[in-house]
Request: fold
Amino acid sequence: MPRFSIVVPSHGVAGRLSQALDSVLAQSFGDFELIPVCDAPDAPAADVVAGYAERDSRVTPVHSPPSAGLPGARNTGLKAAVGGHVLFLDGDDILVPGALAALDARLSAVGDVDVLYFEHERTPWWEGEPTNPAAPLLARTPKGAFSPDRAPQLTGVALPAWSAVYRRAFLTERDLAFPGDHFTDVGFGGLVALRAERVAALRAVVVRHLLRRQGNRLGLPGEHHAELLDQTELVLTRAAEQDLPADRLKPLFEQLFAAVLKTAAHPRRLTSERRAFFRRASALYRRHRPAGYRAPGGSVGVQHRLLASGSYAAFRTLRAAHRTASRAAALLPRPRGLRTRLRYAAALRLPLDRNLVVYCAYWGRGYACNPAAIHAKARLLAPQLRSVFLVEPEAVGSVPPGVEHAVIGSRKYWQVLARAKYLVNNANFADAVVKRPGSVHLQTQHGTPLKTMGADQATYPVVAAATGSFAKLLARVDRWDYNLTSNRHSTEMWERAFPSAHETLEYGYPRNDVYCTASADDVARVRKALGVPDGKKALLYAPTHRDYATGFETGLDLAEFCEAIGDDYVVLLRAHYFYDQGPGRGGGRIIDVTGHRSSEDVCLAADALITDYSSIMFDYANLDRPIVAYADDWDVYRETRGVYFDLMELPPGRVARTPEELAAVFRDGSYADETATSLRAAFRERFCQFDDGRAAERVVRRVLLGEPPESIPPVIALAERVPAPAATLVRS
Reply:
């Protein structure tokens, strides 16, 4: 009996069938049977399959009439299968290299499971970035085999049939087959998940789904969309029959009705009988709504409530309003406003102002980061240059006296962008900004990358969705002339994440210069400004943003932590800059410094750093002070966000996984012992290569003054640098 039976329906894909079959036969793991399902012996696909069957005895074609559709073809292949596990592969998809070996290894590790879910990659037919829709669902699954009750988000209805491998005996013993004609994956996946007792996950891409230019057949207009309700009713009825627990029923209900609402709101899918579709969906919603169910927030929640009430007229009005707003937004000129657009176009025809430098940091959040450090140094080394800092209206107050600024979106904003020879940013300028011949764009970045960035985010759907168009992102990258890095790791990762023709400057981050130039008096001044009591040890707690979370949560009860470590410490809380608005979160021994303009000041004030996966650790390491990594959700973060290296293998100091472990390293002093010091030294060797206190000078001389590379001051060796002194701790 072969390990795998691979069923490949072939209707309508004869032109792409060969690559699917080749991807299977080229696998390094060879214990399988390949079952192509053809329409008839004389069908176009049958001719393709015949050649493979003659060359390889593992290819055993079967036939299913076109009238049986995709469900019939898969069911026919399933009946013919004799392997221990069954994998369904569409005829225009492929198995990635090493896929079967990975499945075999995972099945051997987890034992006899009914279903092994895995990731898949959706690849555009021509250009664009692939996505991995299964990754968020699998990111938080247990490591080994588990009961479906332990991963209620795996309802089966949100994953295609070819995103899992099934134990054949499980399918046959429970008489599980593909139902209906259309949306069969919804019904099959839901029924399988309801009947499975032991499942597992493989967090790796196994199938590459090649999107068609004409789109999915299910997305075409027609009456077949009513069958989505058939599949929804089938799954929810079975769930009710087996009295599915509430914690599993809720995600099943939400995922099914997410698809239903998407269809109901789509103007081109339901060409007729829209009202009938909505009414039937409403009846199903009310009949199967879980007890105590609360609709989600926002626009989706409004749609849920309208569906529950059967208010088709209100639902139609809501969707029409959304479509009208979307169309209106698409028609807005960029830059917005015809008058502004004309003024910008006119300014672009004027000569470049060769003494004008435009700076921006964090999309206009204020005078901060590398652009601010370069600006300050340019005022000393190149006073002949006129500098303008771009800020949002609410950030005008953060601009120091004497610094010229322009409010983003204003007339002056577009004028200086059109005329400036030099444009400096730590993020990106707006899409509408034109890269003029002769202008110089400097990308300074705003951290060393642990998490994936740029084009490397494409395979992580949670962050990819937030990033938007990668084609537009790379178009912005193409405007760069220089890209700044602070270590060789960054150089390599930026080249991967932002492929383009710009020149890399391994000069260090100018904002980090202060870590080598600040004095004890500077440290004392900052601590006093932040309210750190004399004699107290200040611990900076700086967690990063979670792309898969909504809003800011510390992940750590700071009051309990302070109580556990004793009265010698205070905590400086600095949330990610996404959350620097609103009232302070401090009180007592917790000082909220999220809104403080300078992260460099906050780092200078801190005697030690506690962070999870924030890039602040790379900057803080320049101070050679203790760092503790609080990695309570590392596995989820790594799988969902993607990382460039394993922080647990290369930490900057002690690692704590629980609040108790974190408190313990401060109570017993191990956060600053020899082991912690050794780990920090290796971390500094790798990530503090170019931050020697002269980065801003190098940038100004090379980029703004045009000095040749050979005249730029060399980087001072790490062993020769003297970091700013800590207030209460003695550096090893």
Summary: Residues 246-265 form the longest helix (20 residues). The first strand starts at residue 4 and ends at 9. Residues 140 and 394 are 38 Å apart (CA to CA).
